[in-house]
Amino acid sequence: MVYLAEAGKWEDLLDSAVCKDGKFTLNYKQIGFEPFKAIVMYLDSNGRKQSFFVLNQIQIDEDGQNHANDAFMLDYGLTRLEYQEDKKSGAGQSLNSPIQVKIDAGREEALFQKYEYKNLGYIPKTGGARQKRFEALKDVIDDHSFSYYLLGNVFKSKLQYSKAELVALLDYFDEDVQQSKLAGRLKDHIASMLDVGESSRPLALESSLGIIKHNINRFADVNMLVFWASWCGPCRLEIPQLKQIHQTFKDKGFYMASISLDDNRSNWNTALSQEQMSWDQYILNQKEKDAIKAEYAFESIPLVVFTNKEGKSLGRFSGYSPAHIEEYIKVIEANLNK
């Protein structure tokens, strides 16, 4: 048996087929199909999941080295995968090691092979090379405005861009691409982004008691928002520091809230029971999660953001460090004194 899945989502099988005499045909049909990164999987003789590794002929031709990727761009029409024998030995490949295949596919795959190793879409937030890379990306999109692959690269690096830059890039794509599901998510992200100097919007979230509380980021003179999740090891390491902060400042015009990005509410509730955090606890649904990640411009946690009563940022700290507690205290004391 062979199986079709979206890259990175091995458990969500989209199609399957029997391989007979070394041949198989997958027929994947979907209303409103949009090209995406796919993988073809099988079970090796030990029952472990493996995926075909697709040779990147463009990169091979450039440097003569062996380049292969388990993902490829599934495009409209026919995609053909063909077994590739080991050219050095002339022998076949082991079933228990990744099987390499040649690919004959559409124009999205050609872009994937050309740019996947070149970090296209990423631009530094500052520095002299930033504008040059941004203009080069616009030229590539302008030349291939049909490409869902290029839109995916922009989406993946969306936090590197300003709101105006994302609007400009989106405008270079064809109308069909602009109306895609991924473009819709990018538009939602743009709508949630803050302009330079703009204060955060009033935040209303569901608490661990099932109550919606408003103005969480504007509740006190100093509001400390802690973005975390039960599965995040560094987030859990920081909790003793947070307890110390809360105990020290809780009655002095200071408000603390932990905001969970957990997908599984049961895991969140278990963590709350284990950690016994005495300040307000909130959880985000998926729509809130996307909007808040855009507004507060982050992907990784833990993240701590301080705001005042107007929603203006007083400071932010990404990642875990034992030294952060001293920085937290400095921010709190400086702004409580004001």
UniProtKB/TrEMBL annotation:
It comes from the Bacteria. SUPFAM superfamilies: Thioredoxin-like (SSF52833). GO terms for biological process: cytochrome complex assembly. It is found in: Cell envelope. InterPro entries: Thioredoxin-like_fold, Thioredoxin-like_sf, Thioredoxin_CS, Thioredoxin_domain, Thioredoxin_ResA/DsbE_sf. GO terms for cellular component: cell envelope. Residues 194-337 form the Thioredoxin domain. Pfam families: Thioredoxin_8 (PF13905). PROSITE patterns: THIOREDOXIN_1, THIOREDOXIN_2. Keywords: Cytochrome c-type biogenesis, Disulfide bond, Redox-active center. The keyword Disulfide bond applies. This is Thiol:disulfide interchange protein. It comes from Pedobacter quisquiliarum.
